[in-house]
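Subject: sequence -> structure tokens, single chain

Hey, anyone have a minute? Need the predicted structure for the following. Not urgent.
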Amino acid sequence: MAVITGIILVTLASEVYAQGRLKLTVLSEDRLQMKWKEAEGPVQGYRVRVRSISEVPQPEMMLTTTRGKATVVGLDSRQEYLLQVLVLNGTGEKLIAKRRFTISGLREEEVVRSGNREQKKKAQAVGSGSGEIDDVTEALESLPTVLYPEPTTTEPPTATEQEEQEVEKSGKDKKKKKKDKHHAKSEEKERQVESREKSSEEDDKVRKTAATQPVTAGTSRKPFECRAGVQADLVLLVDGSWSIGRTNFRKVREFLEGLVTPFHIGPDGVQIALSQYSGDPRTEWQLNNFTSREQLLDAVRNFRYKGGNTFTGQALIHVLEENLKEEAGARLDAPNFLLLLTDGKSQDDAIAAANRLKSVGVEIIAVGVKNADEAELRQVASEPLELNVYNVNDFPLLSKLVGRLVRILCGKIEDRSKAKRIEHPTVDPVLSYPSPTDLQYSELGPKEVRASWAGPSRVVQQYRVVFHSSEGQSPQEVVVNGSVSTVMLTGLSSQTQYHLSIFPVYEDNVGPPLRGIFTTMPLAMPHSLEVTASSPTSLRVHWRPAPGATQYMALYSALTDGEPDDAREVKFGPDETDVELQDLMPSTDYSVTLYALYDEDPSDPVTAVATTFPLPSPLSMHFPMVSHSTLRVTWVPGAVSVPAHRITYSTNHGSDVKQVEACPPPLIANVTTLRVPAPSELRVTNYSESALTVRWEPAADDVTSYLIKWISLSGGDLRQLKVDGESEGAILEGVEDDKEYQISLSALYADGAQSEAVAIRYSTLSGGGPSSVSISEETAVSMLVSWVPPNAHVLQYRVSYTPLTGGEARENAVSLPGSERRVLLQSLLPDTRYSVLVTAEYRNREGGSASAQGKTTSMRVSSVSVVRSDHSSICVSWRPVIAVTAYRIVIQALRDKQIKEETVDSSTSNHCFSELQPETVYRISVHSRLGTVESAAVTILHPTAAAPVRMQVPLRLHPIQNEVCPEMTIRNNVIKGFNMMEAFGLTQRAHSTVEGVAAEPFIFSFLPSYTLYRDTQLTQSTRFIHPAGFAPEHTISMMFRLLQDSPTEPFALWQLTDNDFQPKMGVVLDPERKVLLYFSLDYRGEVQELTFDQPQVHTLFYGSFHKIHLSVSQVSVSLSVDCLRVGERPARPLGALPTDGFEMLGKLVRTRGPRSGSAAFQLQSFEIVCNTTWASEDTCCDLPAQRDEESCPAPAYACTCTSDIPGAPGDVGPPGKPGPRGEKGEKGEEGQKGEMGPPGKGGPEGGFGPMGSVGPRGIAVTGKMGPPGIRGEKGDMGRPGNQGLPGLPGSKGEEGKPGPKGTRGVEGNIGPPGSTGPRGFQGMPGHPGPVGERGPLGPVGPTGLPGSKGERGEKGEPQSLAIIYQLVTQACEKLVHNEVLKIDAFLNEISRKPVPVQEPVGPPGEPGIPGGRGPPGPRGPEGRQGNRGEQGKPGYPGEQGRRGLPGERGAPGFNVQGPQGMKGFAGLPGETKTGIQGPRGEDGKPGVPGIPGGVGQSGEIGPPGVCDSSGCHRGAPPAVDPYFGYQP
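Reply:
Had a minute. Here:
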């Protein structure tokens, strides 16, 4: 997206005029850059403060810099902000610039400034409808005006005309400067001095004229007014829908106030009526209600915001039938006008209604704002559209449209009433209007001052007291009665110069003002600041409080070489005067600066310097882990807050000194490393073609090489091979068949150390077989076979296996490489015994073999049991079986043989059946499946309980009982659960005692809805609501809607926490991702989260009322939206929730604590019902879109015009008394014999019962012959026999023959050490140590800046047109509506702290003419020398440097051929890969031409063309707009 840049140049305050200008540049949607001319002389830096101007307090952004520019991020493009730039000098700071702005406003002004002025004037002359004006008009509109009628006289040019000439002259000077930009800078400075002197001379002339002449209409800035004597009836039709919002509605009132001000109101002049519409129109006042401008303006400022939908067509019909009637004040001979103001597209047919108005002569002017449909506005408005259609991008831009629109409207009224208008001569009375005198100031403080004066000789109706600061703020006005000559001005800024003007208002004119200047006192500073060290990482700060301070702010930074680093900021409450600064560096000087804050205004600071304590040395060093090359060092820190340590280590002769981190005083210890490790798991992996392949596991990471030695045990030479230290294998050549070899391996290290050798023996003989065949890891379809290989090189193994059960015992076999030691046999039959034979095969023949038997496991499930049951449901669970794919569960009623069955996947080990019959025995069977194979069933019997009897109980004031599921009444239903609305006090009786909550009537329900305002955060103790805990299965039911003030970040509609405010259960809405999240504590003590993101969930965020049901069972959670099931998620059973915590409504997810922020939304109902069927039993009659008129009761506020229709059912009455005992009934018929019931509980042992009848004969089935039994284990060793008698001595044997030559012995021990060799090269650097443990979680960061405004929501769901018209056309709707209005008025009269209502404030009055510069005051006493200021922040990084020149080409390498390498390992078989895609083929031949299409429909008529300079007939130049330059 392209970056749009807007630049605003603002002249600084008078006392810092020499500081230059402030330049604002928009970098992106939320980023603003500001630059200013740096102050001359030594300054410490600058402080930039950005504060949002809104009713809701938001965090203030503050930063410091040493340069004349800064960048602020995280701004809202629609939010208005106040920018202040202060210069820091010593311990003081001084305001040098102040500016109010919006990002969107800066962009609009940049677009106006960068456009072509000539084209803009032409567009305004023909009424483009854009609502924007050029620089000259904007400069004229910014001038103050007097809103009082004055006689017309011929006077010298007014101040407004003089400033117009100055603006035009400045525009010409700018063009001339562009042409003469090559002139010398000295000439430019001379011209600037001359123009400044000339401007000051003209100002002096204006002041002298104002001081010497009587103040008449010629000397004041007169606003535009329509001509008196013209008649017209004007109806203002204002959109009051929810999309406008209360903040923008104030802009609408200001726009209407400026629109009606120029008219002469009364029966002989212009009459103005106003109707506000949304879902239904409402007349605020009729044409004949007001006869003066003051009455009308007061009504405009005070009419209330309505809220609702946008039915423009219905509102236009309302104007025709209600406002333009003779009884409402309409005049037959006066022209009729209608001005429509809307911000969206109509939800009904507005064009047909507009045509009815235009057909009776009403001229319609349409004004659209923001999201208005311009195509619809052009069809609604009257011709000519270029003068009757306007559209602006946002509500603040309406103020720029007022001047042009009112002049066009006045011209239309005069043109249409010219024939009937009667000119009345104007009498110009020559009167004297004296001004008050003797202005005095008293009770001067930082925020207030009292002004007193002496009244004039004539009787004054009232005084207008206008005051503004010399820094250029908007003027403020106070009106006092003419009999009063004193006023207290409050809400001022401290240490600020103000200009004051007091205007006497007479009966027919306004006199000249009495002017003066005063300066408020500075704010009180904190004193007696003391900063002392409390630990190596903290400082204690203490001070004496400043009276009236609302907060304290401390800035502290470390002093490096006497200069401060970047300062950190922390704020404290008004009662905190003894605090501690944490996370500091030890042995460091810190500068602490303290301010007293009065709301947002800071006092002058006080500063002190202190030094933190040094760090203590560590204690008790230990070495828990020592290897040949690494050490683990542990110690006891000298203090808990030590931030880091430095570890220095070296060898015993002082070489190889290294260190890590930073430290307090050292602690020294000695340690000896271990011997170097040896390699392990030496083995032979291959033997072929007189070569052995050996492999091993490496010894350590720092091995430089390995030494391999091998020799034949039957004679031969000792051979050896050295390989690289990164190798894990080698090839030994020259190996012969049918011999046994000894092989040894040792590791060599960089320092010359050699590890101990590991050795194995390997035989090249062939013929041996495997041993110790074992079977393990049996499943229903697989088993693992493993064996011990022979001490010879096996080419491959053949594993054959045969089932020992079944009719056909077919043998299967697999072949494996000789390096394998195990194999997994798959696709076996379940519950079957197998015989397994493993045979070794060599190159030239087959070797020995070994066998074993094993059995696969059964597929049948086990531990089938019922975990929960009631009168209508049974939940069954079982122990899962490994390797199955699914389970089939069948339930059959023994009474009527009805069967239900379900198939679930293998990850599920439980299932619930619902809608069962009460008091019925069911047979439950569970089968496991593996593909198409199904196991035998495991069956149990279990009955359902008896159906519960519901009793009618009266309504309780306090529904909380000490039981898991108490009874309650919801919409005439007695069920078990909790009415959460009563638990949080959201009832008609109790809501008035809850702060931050307002009740609003709801037309589709007997109960009102409750608005929870922002940061209300209703919190209740869990012990009060759920003292006995939660039912394991329940349904959460809520009906709510989101508001325009609802946040865009995630928040919990309801959540339950422990006593540390850690969430354990709740329902969360995430407007960013448009998902609903349910979380709960499961039986393992873990919090599980389930997310629902279906399209039906997205409708919850569109601003309408919706009802959700979350049905929580032990195996899943299902969601229903507006009584329609939308999704289900598997879940673990609910665990034990804490009852000593809290339950909250609207809690923001990213905050913690009892009062850390909550969301605004409306709540109509909230219940937790102790069953999972409430979603299907509950109705959505409260929702208009889901309402069924046949099955739902009549609305709460509806009425009927006949008396024979029964009313809504009344409340449930109290339970009646027990009735009389009934007569004994006749004996019923004998019932059929029931089926066998479930086994009952074991009773006491009875006696021998009678002999039972003989049962049916069983079926004889001959089973298969079992497999041969497993060979028994070896028996125990027998007892030792008795000792035998000693034998006779034997004869001496003959001398034996000499034996054969012995084999070569094993390698001898290492000889004595040789002479010391030369010093070796420096060793390779060691490998990095092991990764440290993860550090503790850091503290929660500060709250981020407010996010940007979200995108516009999707269009709301369409409502039933029949329902809407039925509600609109009901005969008695007006009576119901009047009652609702009475309730609404009553609720709004209640004063409630969390819902402030801003009283309408009149428009700012004109500021007085600035007074002359007073004489300089006496020189004040010399101030004490301030403390050294803080060092400024480092500058922004510079731009990236240019790329360097390419380096010279390196010299070629030495062409020396190295020695021949060792023979490599045998390569793996090659992989099959797809080749590279071939070149693209030639294009095909062109196809047959298609059939020509039909003729399209005619397009809509385009807008009228516009002539440009390229050529067409040029008409007469547009007439000069006589209403150009008006500002209300």
